[in-house]
Amino acid sequence: MRYLVCFFFFACFESIAQTAKLDSLQTIVSQNKKDTVHAKALLNLGINLERSDLKRSTESYWAVLNMKNDPAFNKFKTTAAVRLAGNYSATGKLDSVDYYFEKAEALLQFNPNDLKLAYALYIGKGIHYNRIGKYDIALSNYQKALALDHQIIGQDNVAGLYINLANVHSSLNDQNSRMQSAYKALEIFEKTQNKTGLSFAYNLLGNVYYHLKNYNEAEKKFLQSLEYRKLLGDKRGEAVVIGNLGNIYSDMGYFEEAITYFSKAKEINESLGLNNQVGENLINLGKNYEKMGDYESSLSHFQEAQNVFETAGIKTYEAVILADMGKVQRLLSKDKEAYNSLLAASKITSNEKDYGNAVTAYKNLKEYYQEKGEYRQALEAQSKEYAYRDSIGISALQAQLKELESRYALDLKENEISLLKTEKELDRVELDRRKANQNLILAVFIFLILLAGILVNKYRIVGRTKRLLEVEKLRNSIARDLHDDLGSTLSSIHILSQMALQKEDQASKNLFSKINTQTASMMDKLSDIVWSINPNNDDLDQLLSKMQEFAAEILEPKGITCQFEVGKGAEHVKLDLEKRRNLFLIFKEALNNAAKYADSKHLEIKLKVEDHKLNLLIKDDGKGFDLHQTKKGNGLFNMQQRASMMGGSMTIESYPEMGTSIQLRAPIT
């Protein structure tokens, strides 16, 4: 489970850093002078306590709001109302959130030109709506904050805004924008040496690498963040990072360590009264126990998480928990409960148009029907699963088209600006025509050249954009048709052959068993073809993720360990469709050979870019073979052919009992 990490840096009133001693603030508050200095101290006290003592923080904000009605106090009250809404959002008290945001908006009317107060309101609302899953409203508020004057709101606040934008991009599965926002934030915080900001930035980058399954790099970033959190006394942030480390260990199979980390994070969040985070910790514990095969403990934690969210009135995770519970209940043979949970999860995701979770819900429901032999219902569930997969694909295509449109609009805007500048120059020359007729002629000549260049450039942009759209549309259409028509048909044949296998006729069983095997193989190959055609996978980082998934899928069942090393900058390389496909098929054939014939215990895989060439090395510690005494089969021959098609070469070195190494060298362009 991915943690939602929100950043709310406050610079409106020169707030004291979290490392400062609280006693100086408490001394001012204890004097109870009830002036603006007192209000400012209360506000900063609340901000400093947000990450360690939420109850006292809330009480400080209440005290600010209860101060006398005086215009001098309005800016402090506005910020206190926004902060109170944030505290209640974190604890799941949604009615109070709406009340205090409305109060903040009313107070802001007294200081309409205060951009720092406006920033505080926009960022607070963005964090809340992102937390409850209303990403479009969150993004709208962040964009309003980003439009404010950066010099006025301060660089640290700009960096904090990039942190929050990265969280929304993560929720919308826009990993490229997420990574860009994360590094923009880190760049600013490193310049300002803001420890709080650095703790958030490193945690965010850890989540990015975790999503890419680069666990070693993710762990480094999380530990850097944890070091800052402890230095700052940020208990709330410490719990977030500890939970993220638990996710890494769970994915790597270190289940006992994961339990320790999830439990520690839960303990901290319980002490702070953060119901939303406690529920997430319980879900992560449930998933971890499921991976361990302890289904009773898994179900118990899912049910406990469900109770926590229901008590807090949080509905964001309702479908996720039901889908997970249904799967575990099915594994425990609690058929009625499993059916009810899976059906409820499917209905909720359908009603809320939650496409990502709908795919999981209907996939689990399909598996339930297949296990029970109810193949007609399984086909219906599978149809809905594919329909929601298509919806996700359409959303991604729409996002691509919007990006192309925005780039085209930007180019046109630049051309319009150039034209306006030229017209201004022409007016100036016209006024001076009597004194410098020769300059006028020269200016007109320059103007005509610029105008011609602008028109030519405009039509080139239009043509290039149309061609890009046509190519993207064609590739998406091919991928969608293969997925919808052939994929759905093969899957249906696969399920129908399973139905036929239940009959008593042994001869038919043998035939349908072959059909079942062949269709499964065809579905796997079709999945590779669809993946290679889809333009969303043109970046090498997408190919690296697929290569790592395939390596885990083929090697883990055989107990073969794998070290996957990617050279710096390799993930940003773009390959055309043919080279990307050939590279993956060479990699796939090499791993299949190692798994089937090498009798190895460990594989070393290295991918790097040097001198505009792609270098792939796959080396095992298996029994090897004598190249001169072994006939070259279709597999080795095909690998050599694919290397030639890439314009490169492939070298195979192997000796008996000394392992095998395969090295591919091919140009990028």
From TrEMBL:
Residues 365-439 form a coiled coil. TPR repeats lie at residues 119-152, 199-232, 239-272, 279-312. InterPro entries: HATPase_C_sf (IPR036890), HATPase_dom (IPR003594), His_kinase_dom (IPR005467), Sensor_HK_TwoCompSys (IPR050482), Sig_transdc_His_kin_sub3_dim/P (IPR011712), TPR-like_helical_dom_sf (IPR011990), TPR_rpt (IPR019734). One of its GO terms (cellular component) is membrane. Residues 477-669 form the Histidine kinase domain. SUPFAM superfamilies: ATPase domain of HSP90 chaperone/DNA topoisomerase II/histidine kinase (SSF55874), TPR-like (SSF48452). The chain crosses the membrane at residues 440-457. CDD domains: HATPase_UhpB-NarQ-NarX-like. This is Tetratricopeptide repeat-containing protein.
